[in-house]
Fold this sequence. Notes:
With 383 residues, the chain is α+β, with helices and mostly antiparallel strands. The chain is 56% helix and 15% strand. The protein is elongated, with a radius of gyration of 60 Å. Residues 1-11 have low confidence and may be disordered.
Amino acid sequence: MSALSEHGHEHEHGHEHDHDHELEAQLRPSGPPPPPPPGPISQSVAIGFRAVYIAMGVIALLWLGSNVRQIAPDSQAVVLRFGRIVRTQQAGLLLAWPRPVEQVLLLPGPDRQLSQEVSVLPAQSAAAGALVAATGESGALPSDVVPYLTGDGNIVLLNATLIYRITDPVAYTLSQVHVAPALDRLFRAATVRLTAGRPLNDFLTVALNPTDTSQSASASALRGEVRGALLELVNARLQQLAQAGTPLGVRVERIDMTAWLPPQAKVAFDAVLTATQAADRGVAVARTDAERRRQQADRDRDRMLASAQATAQELLSSASVDTARIMALEHEETPDTRNSILLREYRTGVGSIMGRIGSGTVIDAQSGVRFVLPGKPAVTPSR
């Protein structure tokens, strides 16, 4: 028993020794020893590089999404890739490559109206320069008016504002820097043609008193006709440019034009206008008086006609009453009853006459009695 116990203790001791050797083998490193941990400077540099990498990533994301934008409802966009127009975009979300790959130009939408005042060119002659200078010094007229010669040899001063919209964004982008001067030239060319074909009277409705809003319907219609003709001429020239291969991509919607007269002519036209207005007032008064007399005559005629008709109706009724008895006798008359009807009527008539005279003397016509009755004195005709 003791030998068995000792052998068991030796066996357990051997197992414990082998287990310790296995633990030491596991804990002992198999390769070279690890390097020492980095210092604070190395850690700072590593953190800095990580921050740079993160910042570069954020910047790259922002750069990639720099041309992703929302186009407003009143705008439109033109996309250029390396300077070449590739597409257009109306209102909505726009997805485009970032610059410098693609460039986005924002333009006003097709329904948005733009305005441009027609500029003034330098005077081409001393007379025109003196006319414009006198206009500017007077203070009554703006300094941006331009003189034009009318078809009857007179001068009218005009300034205008063009209201247009973009119809072709590609053409407008290609010629954007030339749109303003081109519209100025087109307006001047169209205005020269229009004024040369119309007399000054077509512009007097505006030129004599441009601030007067109480003008007649004919004057307003004439002013609208002049502006409509000018608008058609300008748009026709824009169409000619488009057909020639150089479109501007715009269309003029309205022309706000104001006409003026030169100061010297304005005085004379004011005097004529004053005299014309006085004559018109006199004519209006005469027409009013004539209309009043005509209406009075119509009333008198209606009254006299009504009175005559009433009198005629009364006479007709009286005659109808007077003849009703005779007409009744006519219907009763036959060859057999004629003598008896006449005798009856004679007796009725004689009785009525005798009732009126009260008394009378009956004389036989065959007797020799004569009466002398008083009568009216004879009238001797004057010689």
